[in-house]
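We emphasize that the prediction below concerns an isolated chain of 504 residues; any contacts that depend on oligomerization or on bound cofactors are therefore not represented. The input was used exactly as deposited, without trimming of termini.
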Amino acid sequence: MNRDVVISGGGPVGLMLACELRLAGVDVLVVERLPEPDQTIKAGSVNLTTGEAFYRRGLLPAMDAVVERNSAQIRKFLESRGGGGPKTVPVGHFAGIMVASDGVDFGDPAFRDVGPAARVVVIQQQDVEAILAERATELGVEIRRGVELTGFDADDDGVSVHLDDRETVRAGWLVGADGGRSFVRKQAGFEFPGTDPAITGRQALTELTGADVLPAGWQHGPGGLYVHGPTPGRVLTVEFDGPPADRDAPVTAQEIEDSFRRVSGADVRVTQLHSATRFTDNARQASTYRRGRVLLAGDAAHVHSPFGGQGLNLGIGDAVNLGWKLAATVHGWAPEGLLDTYTTERHPIGEWVLEWTRAQVALMRSDVRTRALRRVVDDLLHTGDGATYLAKKLSGVLHRYPIEGEHDLTGRAAPDFAFADGSRLGEHLHNGKALLLDLADHAGLRETANGWAGRVGVLTMKCDSEPALTGVLVRPDGHIAWAREGGSVAGLEAALHRWFGAPA
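Result of the prediction step, given as a token string:
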């Protein structure tokens, strides 16, 4: 083999996966057809679970300065429009119905021990990509830009990957992280069922005049929906007259201006266009994320409208879930069926995101019945329970993998436990390995784990958890594979076998 893994696609998902694989000692090549990173306006924030993934890999310091810069821009814009105080900061929206943070009960058990990851929210996708590219390079990932994957031949032993029709790289595995129109997905024959688009959306960064009279936030206009802000010059329009006639045609300043005028009714002029894109509500998902030696991640595995900002989060979650499982398979110690749990665990979350975005499009329409329904949903989301529910759904804290175990923590993302020495759990996960927390100084627990040394680290430390936990087995992706309290270690050995193979 020339390489253990080839990843097609050098966006945030492909780069995050490459970092995860390199942490586990896998030889990985990333190929990206674009010669430079795409600066088209995309996602502008991440959710809590994505912030946790970055935190657990030591990436928060690199992101802090960017987050503060973006937050300052948003505060300045909102203040210029007569709002923006601390209590009006939104936690997110559903179909453009904004929900403020002061309506959310952050004392809800789902938000317990979230740690410093909660501060990573307002960050542009391009900034995430730049930070991940730098980290991947530090770890020794080879990233080839301006190189196109033109074909591949997969067999039982590996994949022959053809690059620019001039070079063939033999790899053990190929991962398509090459976007919604994924060449890898199409070439490998993955089924991609879903629903056809019914809207045309446009998003742009502009210089414009005439918009100062418009209110900030999501607004219904005579021809659809529009948004001005929350950063200077950012505009978004949604029209319900079907998908664009030519999805690939360049987006012009005139197109953005005409759309904004139609939906807002305002005399707006776009004087300069910095970045623009079209989108639809095309919603599709691969029926499986693996076919033999070929896997999919990110938009290659699922596409949907960007409402609610779930696309980047979904892709990062794919990468973190897949990385350690693929690495275990490459190194030969993966238990039977481990790689197939990638689809088992991630597919239902992707399915939820597609349904969530479809529901938002339905609620955005402007007919009399939908407007009546929208008022009802608006009222519900501005109750304490409604706001807290939305925050929990958007943040990802309710996601739980189908992992067998008696304790309520099993399958959930691990709380960021605070330990007696002042450290927190996330700080102990930077190396990308599994970690068994010995929270009761239990010799039997440590003895049980001896056979998995090198795959599973052990940390003996007191913490403030309630109720008192004997131990917690945290997978490399931060999800809990086993937890017990009351001095028992029942089920630990079975969990170690299930997720980390036979003892060495």
